Amino acid sequence: MALRAMRALGELEERLMSILWDESPLSVRDVCARLKRTKLAYTTVMTTLDRLHKKGLLARTKEGNAFLYVPAMDRTEYQRRVVEAALGPMFEDGAAPVLAAFVDVAAKVDEGNLAQLERLIAEHKRRK
Fold it and tell me: pTM (2 decimals)?
């Protein structure tokens, strides 16, 4: 599937994708039912799901009068593509500053992230 540069989702798009990543296929009505205590109009949910479909993030099939939506990729693949689109251009002028900032942020969030990064680097080197 050819996709444009992947961008982070808006708040509503993220909520709808999260519902569909957790359970699918779902109709617009099913998604609305899973939006706990949210007073979103049915048409707002329908329009947002249609836009996500047009962006290539959702696939849909017609069942009766309704569309059933499923994610076109899993959450991990989506996150990988967003990170790649965001960080890729930053590496063009040299990776050191970007990597240093990434390590700093990862450590601030949780020191355990550094050990996980070390494991990922070692695993990547073994595969090469």
Answer: 0.75
